[in-house]
Amino acid sequence: MLGKTYLTKQASLLMKFARTTSDSELSAKLISKAADLKSQADPLPDKDQGPRAPDVAEDGDPKRGSPIAPS
After folding, report:
1. What is the pLDDT of residues 6-20, one digit of tens each?
2. Are 49 and 4 in contact (CB under 8 A)?
3. Is 3 within 8 Å of 45 (Cβ atoms)?
4. Angle of CA points 52, 57, 60, to nearest 5°
């Protein structure tokens, strides 16, 4: 599932492109797609809750650093 931040950013970019084009039909389609993305993003929580990488320490423990040793 896509997060709220991603969907909102994509909608914003579509609006930006819609304002820069001189083709009114293309502009209308971009605005419509931006509205679709915004409606998908609205019910989602404000902070994206993606899975954490398994090697990321939650408490900043330096012992749980990268599994790859420096050469």
Report:
1. 888 999 999 999 999
2. no
3. no
4. 135
